[in-house]
Structure to design on (49 residues):
């Protein structure tokens, strides 16, 4: 989850707290576990690099 949070912070210019809140919001909206959302963000970033 730390890596996903760092990616959000870097790419969206978010604070650490904002990035964590974004992860939590995405998990709630998508009805996924926080760890699943984090993994999807990491996977997507890997595809773009």
């Amino acid at each position: 989850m730390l890596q996903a949070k760092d990616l959000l912070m870097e790419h969206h210019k978010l604070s650490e707290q904002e990035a964590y809140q974004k992860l939590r919001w995405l998990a709630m909206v998508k009805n996924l576990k926080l760890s699943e959302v984090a993994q999807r963000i990491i996977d997507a970033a890997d595809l773009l690099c």
About this structure: The domain at 2-48 is CATH 1.10.10 (Arc Repressor Mutant, subunit A).
